[in-house]
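Quick check before the chapter quiz. The format below is the same one you will see on the exam, so make sure you can read both the input and the output lines.
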Amino acid sequence: MGGDLTPGGPPGGPDTVGTRPGAAPRPAGTPKAVGIVWALLVLNTLGSAGAKTVIPLPRSLIQVVTMGALVAAFVLALVLNRRLRVRPSAFLSLLTLLLVTGVISSARLESGFGALFRCTRLALFVGTLWLLSRWWDDGPTFVRHHVRTYFAVLGSVAAGLVVSPGAALPDLYGGRLVGALWPLTPPQIGQYAAVIVGLTVLLVLGRRTDRAGAAVVIVPSLVLLALTHTRTATLGLFLGLALAIGSLLLTSAAARRFFTWAVLCAAVAAVALGSVLEAWFLRGQSQENFSSLTGRAKVWDALLAAPRSTSEQLFGVGLGDKSFGGLPIDNSWLAVYNEQGLIGIALVAALLLVLGGVALLRPPSLPRACAIFLISYCAIASYTEAGLGDASPYLLHLALAAALLATPAAATPVPTPEVPRRRVPRRAQRSEVT
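Here is the expected output.
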């Protein structure tokens, strides 16, 4: 492989998303408690809306758990980083500006007091990422935390499927897989499965994990992804992997072999299982429903046609529940336009452009490939999923990409203690001269 995922590997390129020279000394190692902080951030972004669970969970209880997880993550990160050493980056700076835009738009209370609550949540989320940035480098630490945590979430989905298949595959969602123990929607489950499958495949190609362990993650995740019938996650997985593996073709023989076999298998599947794949992709929808993206286009047209003042066009109406007229927007760009205006759209676009530009400037490596996969997946999913303007799994994916693109800081040299000089008496000095 052209890159190294071990902490302390060689820098991969210019310092745009990573640290500035001399910004912060590199810590000796990443504390294990950092994984707990990351898991708490994942728990917070699971949300509180979804399918009916086997044991009814009040939404207020779920909100207390998710918000409590975020507060605990911030406090634990603060304890781990008591000296407040951070690694300045363009990604976190733009994310902070997006937070400021959200506060400005929410201060008018057009979306109610809930907008200020969401601003507080986003502030804690961004603050926790700043505190964790001290340990950002191109190592595998955060990738492993990401995969393990989301795999645990998928484990709860699989457990719900075993405990109550009827609740996990309800008719309300057209027989698509949902969370029966924790309220998760099919797009959420599909997203988590696609992301960890893509990252695990790249880790295998980079020889950062063994094939048996990777199969334990990849096979059940693909089964759950198929049961969700989530088209966005499936396309994001394949297109994101194609771009990520394509970035390794010149430096990795394993990537070239995998890419060749993947193309051959895809061609055979398209010929032999074309009708089955088409039926799975259409999900029994009519041509009209499919062309309108399951009704999303109607909501988008209504949102764009709604009259807005100049301030609403620039700053939006404040952070909300990503809906318009009581219907979900399901588009990150239009959701950001509605809540944070044109300024918010510019900042989100800058986030993706900065991360993508830095990834292109890095030499071929496994960290770069993982970052390309995450960036491309979020960009693809942004068309039919909301979340790039608020605390969400998509911002967490992009934060992981920023961590992988961060240039490792130089290790702080250990000072050598001075050896005290032995004092020689004057009488001995004269005797040596004579």
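If your answer matched, good. Confidence is low (pLDDT under 50) at residues 1-27.
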